[in-house]
């Protein structure tokens, strides 16, 4: 949910970013800007720059940047919409729209009937739990110590055993068979019946709390499978939701953490033990959309999947994803206890569960424990691979007790002597050949240094960066970008350019107001928001770029077109070499052709100059 662009524009027009930031931290004037100790990292020397002229802030150490609203959102760890109201309060901005619900874009007319249908279905499941037939479900919940307050909080229900009654109810309330089918509970037919019939119902909500699907648990032994989950529908996409996310958006920011669990019964178990900031994956994988949701919480992720092999393997996979996303996280580790959180609660009580959830380790600890307790490497190749994997991390740990402890664990897991591991750690690394075997003859040609992602020229980066600077300052540059460039090679710059083009299409001003552009990005749901805002403020703050001119833009376009041609040539050469099947002679011939084309391109550039 977001406020309308017009309201944000009116607020930011009356907002002085210096006054807003001064309400939180001391600032000092330095030239045309203001400086402060950055509150977003352990800052010893003022590195947060505040520009009253551009109405933006930027830390040149940790990279955090944005407008006045962004600052408040990050400082107070609250949502962007909440920060809008806070900024309005600080600057004395009054508008009736602030007291009403946040602006909600018009819903797709084909989707609206499905929300209406599923909301009525949710009411019917709630009704089912509270009639005599629902006693079987109530008894089960009582056995699992789920009380009335949790039933209401999680909207738990029951589907009547006669599945035709569910469909009859929805049809009687004006919903079509097509809508019944599209919410995923029955096929549209004359004999349609509820696939969840006779089961306990757990509603699944989107990040705003709207029910979009269900997970239905069996209550009788003869019912299979154990759970029936909603299929993918126009409103339900499993990879885009986290169970209980809508309930923890506020508490997680306040607590500074959120537990990520495997199932929704685990979420309720933690809630029973007094830990309310918990979400569930309903599986052992994490999608990019779910990572984006976790990023928005701006807190530590505490990952805890089941103690069985599948859960621990899932943890190992998610570690890689969280590392790539740059999110702060720790892992719950209880190597000698294979129970899931709900089992711990039922068997040992809330205090035992709280104790188990407090056993937090970093990724290094968890991964070594995994190879010690879950999947011990068996073959010599496995042991060597595991040992070399950890060596690169151990090199970054200063010599001392912590490193020695890790070495001892690694020795136990792999069978290598501790001294042998120490020798490997201290071994001077000349290249990756020390830790990875070279397997094909083409490697000897060292083509890796020509890989397009690794040799993205400084010339291209500088040209794309200057083009963005022009686009941020002059609408003529935006038009020339659309007509003559179309897209940038560098992905982050390409994303920024797309936001600039969208900005110009929705507003007719000649120049771009940076705070409003930042607002557009902040409300987009883009998981790269922080990176994009950081780059924009960085480029906009450049002191040494020349002002826009048609000739300057022409030169930038020529460089970009030339460099993109070179990158395409590199990519095609890389493909050609990969298709040589390891034939060093063919690969060398391909490289020779590439060098000849590169020489011709250089000659062409000299003639232009």
Notes on the structure:
This protein is α+β, with helices and mostly antiparallel strands and 609 residues long. It folds into five domains: 5-99, Alpha-Beta Complex (DNA Primase, Chain A), CATH 3.90.580.10; 112-234, DNA primase, catalytic core, N-terminal domain (DNA primase DNAg catalytic core, N-terminal domain), CATH 3.90.980; 249-361, Dna Topoisomerase Vi A Subunit, Chain: A, domain 2, CATH 3.40.1360.10; 380-434, no CATH class; 458-608, DNAb Helicase, Chain A. Helix content is 52%, strand content 9%. The protein is built from 27 helices and 14 strands. The strands form three sheets. A five-stranded antiparallel β-sheet has the order 1-2-3-4-5. It has a five-stranded mixed β-sheet with strand order 11-10-12-13-14, with helices on both faces. Helix 14 links the parallel strand 12 (300-304) and strand 13. Helix 21 packs across helix 22, helix 23 (491-506) packs across helix 25 (529-540) and helix 26 runs antiparallel to helix 27 (584-608). The protein starts with a helix and ends with a helix.
3D shape: globular
Task: Give the name of the CATH architecture of the largest domain.
Answer: Orthogonal Bundle
Low-confidence stretches: 430-456
What do we call the CATH homologous superfamily of the largest domain? DNAb Helicase, Chain A
Q: Order of strands in the sheet with the most strands? A: 1-2-3-4-5
Number of helices: 27
What is the CATH third-level topology name of the largest domain? DNAb Helicase, Chain A
Q: Could you name the CATH class of the largest domain?
A: Mainly Alpha
What average pLDDT do the residues reach? 85
The overall strand count is 14
What fraction of residues sit in β-strands? 5-15%
What count of structural domains? 5
The first-to-last residue Cα distance is 52 Å
- Secondary-structure content class: alpha+beta
Largest sheet: 5 strands, antiparallel
């Amino acid at each position: 949910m977001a406020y309308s662009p017009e309201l944000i524009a009116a607020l930011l027009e009356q907002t002085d970013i210096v006054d807003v930031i001064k309400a939180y931290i001391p600032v000092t004037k330095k030239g045309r800007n203001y400086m402060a100790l950055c509150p977003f990292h352990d800052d010893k020397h003022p590195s947060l720059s505040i520009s009253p002229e551009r109405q933006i802030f930027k830390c040149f150490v940790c990279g955090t940047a944005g407008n006045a609203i962004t600052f408040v959102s990050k400082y107070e760890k609250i949502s962007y919409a909440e920060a809008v109201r806070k900024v309005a309060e600080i600057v004395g901005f009054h508008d009736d729209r602030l007291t009403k619900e946040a602006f909600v874009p018009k819903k797709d007319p084909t989707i609206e009937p499905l929300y209406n249908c599923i909301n009525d279905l949710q009411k019917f499941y709630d009704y089912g739990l509270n009639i005599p037939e629902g006693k079987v479900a109530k008894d089960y919940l009582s056995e699992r110590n789920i009380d009335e307050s949790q039933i209401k909080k999680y909207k738990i229900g029951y589907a009547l055993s006669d599945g035709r009654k569910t469909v009859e109810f929805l049809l009687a309330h004006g919903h079509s068979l097509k809508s019944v089918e599209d919410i995923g509970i029955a096929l549209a037919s004359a004999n349609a019946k509820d696939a969840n019939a006779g089961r306990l119902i757990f509603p699944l909500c989107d990040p705003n709390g709207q029910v979009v699907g269900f997970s239905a648990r069996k209550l009788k032994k003869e019912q299979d499978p154990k759970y029936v989950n909603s299929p993918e529908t126009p409103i339900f996409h499993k990879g885009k939701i986290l169970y209980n996310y809508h309930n923890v958006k506020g508490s997680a920011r306040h607590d500074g953490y959120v537990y990520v669990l495997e199932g929704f019964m685990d979420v309720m178990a933690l809630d029973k033990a007094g830990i309310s900031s918990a979400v569930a994956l309903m599986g052992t994988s994490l999608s990019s959309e779910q990572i984006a949701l976790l990023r928005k919480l701006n807190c530590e992720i505490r990952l805890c999947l089941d103690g069985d092999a599948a859960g621990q393997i899932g943890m190992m996979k998610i570690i890689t994803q969280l590392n790539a996303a740059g999110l702060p996280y720790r892992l719950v580790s209880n190597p000698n206890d294979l129970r899931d959180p709900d089992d711990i609660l039922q068997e040992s009580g809330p205090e035992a569960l709280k104790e188990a959830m407090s056993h937090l380790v970093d990724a290094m600890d968890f991964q070594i424990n995994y190879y010690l307790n879950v999947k011990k490497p068996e073959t010599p190749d496995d042991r060597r691979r595991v040992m070399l994997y950890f060596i690169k991390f151990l090199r970054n740990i200063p010599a001392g007790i912590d490193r020695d402890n890790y070495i001892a664990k690694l020795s136990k897991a792999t069978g290598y002597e501790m001294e042998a591991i120490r020798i490997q750690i201290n071994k001077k690394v000349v290249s990756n050949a020390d830790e990875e075997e070279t397997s094909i003859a083409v490697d000897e040609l060292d083509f890796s240094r020509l890989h397009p992602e690794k040799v993205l020229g400084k010339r291209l980066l500088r040209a794309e960066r200057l083009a963005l600077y022009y686009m941020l300052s002059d609408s003529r540059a935006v038009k020339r970008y659309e007509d003559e460039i179309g897209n940038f090679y560098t992905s982050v710059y390409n994303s920024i350019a797309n936001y600039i083009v969208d900005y110009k299409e929705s507003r007719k001003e000649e120049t771009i107001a940076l705070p409003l552009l930042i607002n557009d990005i902040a409300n987009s749901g883009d998981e790269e928001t922080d990176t994009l805002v950081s780059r924009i403020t960085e480029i906009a703050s450049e002191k040494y770029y020349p002002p826009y001119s048609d000739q300057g833009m022409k030169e930038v376009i020529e460089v970009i077109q030339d460099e993109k041609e070179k990158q395409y040539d590199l990519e095609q050469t890389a493909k050609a070499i990969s298709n040589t099947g390891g034939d060093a002679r063919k690969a060398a011939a391909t490289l020779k052709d590439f060098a000849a084309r590169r020489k011709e391109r250089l000659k062409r550039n000299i003639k232009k100059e």
